[in-house]
Write a structure and sequence with these properties.
By secondary structure, this protein is mostly helical. The chain is built from 14 helices and 4 strands. The protein has a two-stranded antiparallel sheet with strand order 1-2. The protein has a two-stranded antiparallel ribbon with strand order 3-4.
Length: 358
């Protein structure tokens, strides 16, 4: 029986457990099969069902994560090698942001899997902390205690992945969702969601800098090729110039109106320079890129440490929370780029022309 339980916890099927509720196409857990229940004490049944619930959640989370990563990778290859037809089929899968989240979830599950392997090794080596006698007896309560630290994380990740699978949130909404779940008093959940949010935000920052600092803008944004900056065509009042817009689906709710306006301002400057075969100074780009990348923190302890070192500041002592602190860096970028424009671009005849136009 112990071997069967450990196999189920590892994600393997077992005739000792069945999906529940029975007769439904969308089970929500595993439970002890009725044929076995009549030989067990009610307390044993309850304990086995709690372990089976963990196993079910682990299986469903891993199924979603592996399927998401695999489908996205296949779609990217199809889009690259099969032209327009492949591009249309690629639209049927989730975005690269969701795939990035799924990859992070698999890393978290790897920690759970390592614990199961560790438990199996302790049983085989008759570890006295697990095994109660020389015959290898392991009480179910010991397994429950050993896995208790995963009860909340697996339940939360199961809820998260079910929601993401159902709703397919936009990149910005996905960042918001992870930030909401990070605000918890559970230390392990804080650690897990900080890591997951950092993975998604790191991709967001890369797309942000591609537009804001290097001026790359696309006519459209897709799930597999997301773009923060959109090239919406020639300016009707001055056709030699292009019009640009932000893709709102890429931005989290924490990016307010002033932040969005400054992002578009700086990105428009970078895109215009790019069309003219020029670019922002390398030293400025490197400094601002480091500032944007510094918004992404791998742990809440790092954020708290920055807060303690920085004092109260303008935000009343609250620590940077990922891209929630985006406005500070965006305004810095606008200031730096604006000053550079006045010193090197908007001089002489350009200023006279602008004033005459006004």
């Amino acid at each position: 029986m112990l071997a069967e339980v450990l196999l189920v916890l590892s994600g393997h099927p077992s005739s000792f457990f069945v999906s529940a509720p029975e007769g439904t196409s969308s089970p929500t857990t595993l439970r002890v099969t009725p044929a076995l229940e009549k030989y067990l004490h009610p307390g044993e049944i309850s304990t086995l069902n709690s372990l089976a619930r963990l196993a079910f959640q682990y299986l469903e989370i891993k199924r979603w994560a592996q399927t998401t990563v695999s489908d996205t990778r296949r779609a990217v290859l199809m889009e690259q090698h099969h032209g327009p037809k492949g591009k249309e089929r690629a639209k049927e899968v989730g975005c690269v942001y969701t795939s990035n989240l799924a990859s992070g979830v698999l890393d978290v599950l790897g920690e759970y899997e390592s614990l199961i392997v560790e438990l199996e090794a302790k049983v085989l080596h008759l570890n006295p902390g697990i095994v109660q006698d020389d015959n290898g007896y392991v009480p179910l309560s010991v397994l429950v205690a050993a896995l208790s630290s995963w009860t909340a994380p697996l339940a939360s990740l199961y809820d998260l992945t079910s929601f993401v699978e159902t709703t397919q949130p936009s990149p910005g909404r996905l960042i918001d969702l992870l930030s909401e779940r990070l605000d918890t008093g559970h230390p392990e959940l804080e650690r897990i969601y900080t890591m997951l949010r950092a993975r998604v935000e790191r991709m967001f920052v890369s797309h942000l800098t591609v537009f804001v600092l290097f001026g790359h803008a696309l006519p459209t944004s897709s799930a597999l090729r997301p773009a923060l900056g959109l090239d919406i065509g020639p300016d009707a009042s001055s056709p030699r110039y292009r019009m640009y817009a932000l893709n709102d689906e890429m931005l989290p709710q924490t990016a307010g109106r002033a932040t969005r306006e400054s992002l578009l301002y700086v990105g428009r400057v970078a895109a215009t320079l790019r069309r003219e075969g020029r670019e922002l100074p390398r030293s400025m780009v490197d400094t601002l890129r480091s500032a944007f990348e510094g918004l992404v923190s791998e742990s809440r302890s790092e954020e708290r440490g920055e807060d303690e070192a920085g004092g109260e500041g303008e935000r009343g002592g609250s620590s940077p929370r990922g891209v929630a602190d985006l406005d500070r860096v965006v305004q810095l970028a606008r200031k730096e780029v604006g000053e550079w424009l006045w010193r090197h671009i908007l001089t002489g005849s350009q200023i006279v022309e602008a004033l005459e136009t006004l």
